[in-house]
Structure formats: C-alpha cells, structure tokens
Specification:
single chain, 241 residues, alpha/beta, Rossmann fold, binds 2-amino-2-deoxy-6-O-phosphono-alpha-D-glucopyranose
C-alpha cells in the first residue's frame, strides 16, 4: 500500500487526476471504477481541466460507478447518475453508452444487481477503482457488518450514512434508506485501487482502515488485502497515522 499525504487540496487533486490521466494516456480503453460523494469532486475538476487542455481523452474509456440510491429518478438532483453527469460526464468526451451506473429505479432490484455484476464480469477487469470512505469505514455503500456480500447487492443504509449524505438533499428525510452497491468482492477485483480521503473527521477511520485489524466491521480494512492500493490523504485525514 502506497500512502501519500498532501499539504494542499490542489496538490492532492492534481496527484489523483494525474494517476488517472497517466492510465488513460497509456491505455485509452481503460475501464474506470468511479465514485461519488464530496471527496472525488476536486479530482473530477482536474480531469475536466486536463481534457480541456487536450492532455487526455476519455473517448475510448468506459466507466462503472460503485453505487446508486434506490428509489430516486435518474434526474433527481441527488442521484448519483445526476452527480456524475454534472461533475464529469457532461464535460468530457466519454461515450454515454459506456458510462454505467446501477439503476436504482429498476422494478426488479435483485435482477438489476445480477445484471450489473454480469456487466462488470463481461466487461473485463476494472483498471482503476476510485474510492472514498465513509466515517464508519464503508466503501461504496458496503456498511460495517458481521459478514459482507461479495457481489453487487441491495443494502440498507445506516442512519449515520444517511445523516452524512443529507447535505446533498433538501431535507434529511429525503435521503433514501436503501442503495445498490458493488460488493467488496467486486471492488477488490480491480487491478488498482485509488483511495482518497480528506478531513480531520476521517482521520480515525483512516487509521483503523489502513493500520487496524482486517475486519468486516470496517469494510475499508479489506483493502489491506489488495496488492495494488494507492492512498491519497490530506494532512488532516493522515494526522493519526
Ligand atoms: C457515500 C458514498 C461513498 C463515499 C462515501 C464518503 O455514502 N456511497 O462512495 O465514498 O459516502 O462520502 P464523502 O466523500 O462525501 O465524504
């Protein structure tokens, strides 16, 4: 595990975007696993800048998002579909048909999970999986538990997670109670994992995830078993390491 700590958000964003840009420059067909939440926004901004500067093209790349809320229309302002359109897809040259996000409005959610997992399998190994982390150690929407599900599945969101994400909704009660998420097994299949964490409020979970015991009670700790993880931290998030 390669842990890098940055003095400024700009430096962190440039490093994150630089890793993704370098991948696309050597492999224009790269399969990107993408994440939502506040954490990756600055990296997406840098990627858009790199695209506008002509440094990188996403024309032949494909993307697979980690998760999506259940019950929100795609057009809902807080859906992860809308998030990705706003922050990245509408501003780069990626082909819309190669941007994949689970459908949280599917009539048959179990069938949708199977479809998404099969799509991932058939598309080949993800080259780089971008990840943030929840305060309780969740990755994607894999919440801490005694056991974890390997593949894409429906999850019940913890209250703590709903509260943390309420800032993206008009009122807290609008935060869905369920989501579809890639499983930890799905995530760990990626060739490389790029974990990004910012802020003092994540310092304790960063320590647990990277240096604590490997346990399903901290899903991010399972990243310790992956052979190629790069962690980008700001100073606050890395302050307890
Ligand atoms: C959300 C997302 C995760 C994200 C995490 C942290 O619930 N499902 O993919 O990494 O919580 O979010 P943030 O980056 O906003 O702190």
């Amino acid at each position: 595990m390669n842990i890098l700590t940055f003095q400024t958000q700009d430096a962190l964003n440039q490093a994150g975007a630089g890793i993704i840009t370098a991948l696309l420059q050597t492999n224009p067909n790269a399969r990107l696993g993408l994440a939502t939440g506040g954490t990756p926004v600055g990296i997406y901004e840098e990627l858009v800048r790199a695209y506008q500067a002509g440094t990188v093209s996403f024309q032949n790349a494909s993307s697979f998002n980690l998760d999506e809320y259940i019950g929100l229309e795609r057009t809902h302002e807080a859906s992860y579909y809308t998030f990705m359109q706003q922050h990245l897809f509408s501003q780069i040259d990626i082909a819309p048909e190669r941007c994949h996000i689970p459908n949280g409005k599917a009539d048959d959610l179990d069938a949708e999970c199977l479809r998404y997992e099969k799509l991932l399998e058939d598309s080949g190994q993800i080259d780089l999986q971008l990840l943030g982390i929840g305060h309780n150690g969740h990755i994607g929407f894999n919440e801490p538990d005694g056991t974890l599900t390997r593949g894409t599945h429906v999850v019940q969101l913890r209250e703590q997670t709903r509260e943390a994400n309420a800032r993206f909704f008009d009122t807290p009660d609008q935060v869905p109670t369920q989501a579809i998420t890639m499983g930890v097994g799905t995530i760990l299949k990626a060739k490389m994992i790029l974990l990004v964490v910012r802020g003092r409020d994540k310092a304790e979970i960063v320590k647990q995830a990277l240096q604590g015991p490997i346990t399903t009670e901290c899903p991010a700790s399972l990243l310790q078993t992956h052979p190629h993880v790069v962690v980008l931290l700001d100073q606050e998030a890395g302050s307890l390491l």
